[in-house]
Amino acid sequence: MARDLQRTYRGRAWREEDPADRRGLHEQARTERAVLVASLNCSPVEEADRLAEMGDLLGTAGATVVHRVVQHRDRPDPRLYLGRGRLDELAEWVTENSPDLVVCEGDLSAGQQRHLEDRLKTRVVDRTGVILDIFALHARSAEGKLQVELAQMEYSYSRQEGLWQHLERLGGGVGTRGPGESQLESDRRMIRSRMGVLRTRIAEVANSRETMREERMASADTRVALAGYTNAGKSSLMNALTGADVDVDDALFETLDATTRAFSKDGMKVLVSDTVGFIRHLPHQLVESFRSTLDEVRDAHLIVHVADASEDDEGRATRAAAVEEALDQVGAHDVPRLLVLNKVDLLDEEERDALLHRHRHAILTSATTGEGLDDLRDRLLTTARARWERVELAVPYPRGDVVSAVYAHGRDVTQEAGADGTVIRALMAPADAARVRALLAGGATRG
């Protein structure tokens, strides 16, 4: 029986005799053997970095790179991604070695993916497809799972053509529709219907999240968001700072759902949120889908940009640019930044000095050894104090409610008796100070 090539709903391919291939990369019972293909026009350093990153992505998804094919050209071939000569060489290698899949370092159009699968007779996945697999693997919350599924559906919709091409057309006249075309339309209707259901459910969760967001925005607590390139050590730093128990693993996109923990000192409380890691050219479906989660970044009083101190300068700069691009996408361009260079335990003294010389205002930390964590906490507490204002009020003696309100919401409170009342001084959050002043001016008796 012929081993006909057919496609999954996400544009992948499997052979009919191998049902295990129908699972996602991360669901395979064994590590898959992948051929990494790239069409690049960049410096050798950037090329090596991009290929290494794609290898890391595949490792996180459950595959290992067994062969690489790189073609240097201004832009990928619009139909086949690779030029014909290089594609012929790849097809010959695939025939001889039977890898499980071919992975393209860039993003493929539906047509490119279809033509490559037809030519190579094996499953072809692009960069976005791999990242979507990893997100599906790491999503924990109900909202995160819904967001990932919607992103997968949006990605797959344009890739439905060809799924049923193995069914022959019936009839021969103009306008005759064969079963393959009918099934394609049916599948598209099913996907559109499912996307509608997902958007409704996500909207319901978003409404609940918006209520919690309004409560959080009204709070006097200082909000800090950890942002950075994926695998820069944000979750480890979060655990070290706050004593949290956020999952930590040496894998890309280990954290998808925002986690918030707090630490306090001298009456000051700081809320620290660990958010999804960024990556260069993060698929737009995921940026849109996780916009509600990334509100933690947009609504923060301070963004702590966590970077890997052990990377070379060019790689760190490239990743920093990707992070800044993603922060702009979610509307966080006006939020103040603090650069934290993590993993300094991997550097020697000379390398640390050079790093501080280049980044004079950065804080060097190690979540592993605890180095620099006290400095980071002090900087965050300084940010919290800077948001508060010094309040001085002359409170008539009968207005004990105002004095109680100041003690309830203020810090460093002092008071002294005056001729007509109590002079009370305190450090207060602007919103609380405004409420106390309104309470005093209104003559109410509430605390």
Describe the structure.
By secondary structure, the protein is an alpha/beta fold. The protein folds into three domains: 5-138, GTPase HflX, N-terminal domain (Rossmann fold); 220-385, 3-Layer(aba) Sandwich (Rossmann fold); 388-442, Alpha-Beta Plaits, CATH 3.30.70. Helices cover 44% and strands 20% of the residues. The chain is built from 14 helices and 15 strands. It has helices at 44-61, 84-97, 110-120, 127-138, 142-157, 179-218, 234-242, 284-289, 295-298, 313-329, 349-358, 373-387, 400-409, 430-442; strands spanning 5-7, 13-15, 32-40, 63-72, 101-104, 123-125, 222-228, 259-265, 268-274, 302-308, 337-342, 363-364, 389-396, 411-417, 421-428. Helix 1 (44-61) links the parallel strand 3 (32-40) and strand 4 (63-72). Helix 4 (127-138) runs antiparallel to helix 5. Mean pLDDT is 82; it is low at 1-23 and 162-178.
Give a quick summary of the entry.
This protein is of the alpha/beta class and 447 residues long. 44% of the residues lie in helices and 20% in strands.
Q: Which overall shape is indicated by the principal axes computed on the Cα atoms?
A: elongated
Number of strands: 15
Give the DSSP E fraction (strand runs of 2 or more residues). 15-25%
> Which structural class is indicated by helix and strand composition?
alpha/beta
Low-pLDDT runs of 5+ residues are: 1-23, 162-178
Classified by CATH, the class of the largest domain is Alpha Beta
Biggest sheet, in brief? 6 strands, mixed
Helix content: 40-55%
- What would the CATH topology of the largest domain be? Rossmann fold
Distance between the termini: 82 Å
Radius of gyration: 28 Å
CATH architecture of the largest domain: 3-Layer(aba) Sandwich
Number of helices: 14
